Amino acid sequence: MPMLYRRTVGDVMTEEVVTLRPTTPLQEVAALLDANDIVAAPVVDEDGAPVGVVSASDVLRHETGMPDPQGQDGNDERSWGKARARTAGALMSSPVFTARADWTIPRAARELRGRHVKQLPVVGDDGLLTGIVTRSDLLDAFIRSDVEIRGEVEQDVLGRLLGLDEGSVAVEVRDGVVTLRGHVPEPRLVPVVVGLCQGVDGVVAVDAHLAVARAG
After folding, report:
1. What's residue 2's pLDDT?
2. How many domains does the chain have?
3. By C-alpha distance, which of 94, 121, 91 is closest to 23?
4. Within this chain, do residues 150 and 76 fall inside the same structural domain, yes or no?
5. CA–CA separation, 63 vs 78, rounded Å?
6. 53 domain residue, yes or no
7. Which terminus of the chain has fewer Cβ atoms in its 10 Å neighbourhood, N or C?
8. 103: domain range?
9. Are residues 72 and 179 in the same domain?
10. What per-residue confidence (pLDDT) applies to 50?
11. DSSP 11-27
């Protein structure tokens, strides 16, 4: 059964992104991250394509003179370059791992986990930055209120997709469990309704009490 409206990265990403340029001085980087209460920001070139990411922990490590725990060898050129960094370009991590707006939430979550990063810049077909998606954005997609779930089931599944008469199926949602009571026009619709409800983000289970309405 196709999931008709699994939400995508494009649905949950932040479009207003605080970006840095390679030439942005480190003091300004720290101030921007702090003022916007964010843990990292993408560094973009003059076209708007992401070329790296600078995190607050990079800045903090630099300020305190602590070595990069990920760096195996403190004598390599990269570490020394970072130690002397005065700009975002010298301190940033690159290459930058990016996401696409059409990715599913689970795909983006797997990528974040696999790359050990807390956020991914989102790029369009042209490679230019269109947004940023964080772990908490992805979590929020799964943890939805019962009211939101009920609204989606009633409006999208029963109304828009299946065209059922309003009120023919009553929907209750408690802790992500959807209970359906009512009538559908034909027996083959019962598994379809259940399958579509299971495909709604945030639904834990579907408990269906559906009868077939006799044409009268």
Report:
1. 39
2. 2
3. 91
4. no
5. 17
6. yes
7. C
8. 9-142
9. no
10. 97
11. HHSBSS---B-TT-BHH
